[in-house]
Amino acid sequence: TALVDTGADFSVMSSRLATALRKVLTPWSGPQIRTAGGHVVTPIGVCTSRIQIRGVTFPGCFAVLPECSKDLILGLDFLWEYGAVINLQELIVSFSTQGPVDDDTVPRRAKLCVCDDQVVIPSRTSMFVTVECDNSPSTRGIAETNISLLLGRQVCVARGIIELNSGRTELLVTNFGSEPQCLPGKTAIAYFEELCEFAGQHALSEIPASVEAPTTPIKTDVNPNLPSHQKRCLEGIIESFRDCFASTSKVRQTPITKHRIIVDANQRPLCQPPYRVSSKERDAIRRQVQEMLQDDVIQPSTSPWASPV
After folding, report:
1. Where does the Peptidase A2 domain start and stop, copy by copy (predicted)?
2. Is the confidence at residue 173, as pLDDT, over 70?
3. Distances (CA, A) of 256 to 253, 259
4. Over the stretch 36-51, which tens digit does the pLDDT of each residue have?
């Protein structure tokens, strides 16, 4: 039997039980643990074990204490990882037997699980971890992190395309937390979704006439001290991407996106004093503001919020 303790940050196993199960201990690199009685103790090590609940096996990582009132305590780390739901009225604790997914509409994906018996990732460290996927022996696909592992233990896998060889590959796993994290074997650190290859063909009924490139050069303000060959190269790059630049100062606003600044109703407006600028800079600012006003890019404002230049 095990004690479910929602006030314990770590799952705990007594040294008596660890010895009886012949568990291999690895050094404990986490903080000291304060017991319910207020005593501060240091675990003698950490071990992994598989807990069987109603016929379902749940692998977990346990701090081993020299003295403990209970042989096994399931803490918040274990409860969070397996989505425990506590029903106080019925005095029942239920665990999820399915790995979480980011969106309920997404079909269930294959798990990428740790191959070794356990992997310890130091705090604020990234390291490669060998994982295996039983459902996809050799193929390419997208790996996405286990959101529960990220939220509960601050361990994340970057989303990217991976290639499985005989069902195995290596993933770059990052521990963003301030404490080392022990990942027992068979822990699902990511999910795998196989890539689908599509080949599309499109045909045009008529070949459009080629459009001649505009011959009007773009006005550029290039540093005159730049060497001539570098200047020509820069102007060539600008010319090749000339469709990204406006040919007129009347750019105007766009109706594609809308922007709002939402603030608290009780928030008082902020009104900052103007920045100090030289007279030459102020003339340039005034000239640019007048141009934007004429082009209807900006409009006068009487808002109490202000951060003028």
Report:
1. 1-14
2. yes
3. 9, 10
4. 777 788 899 988 888 8
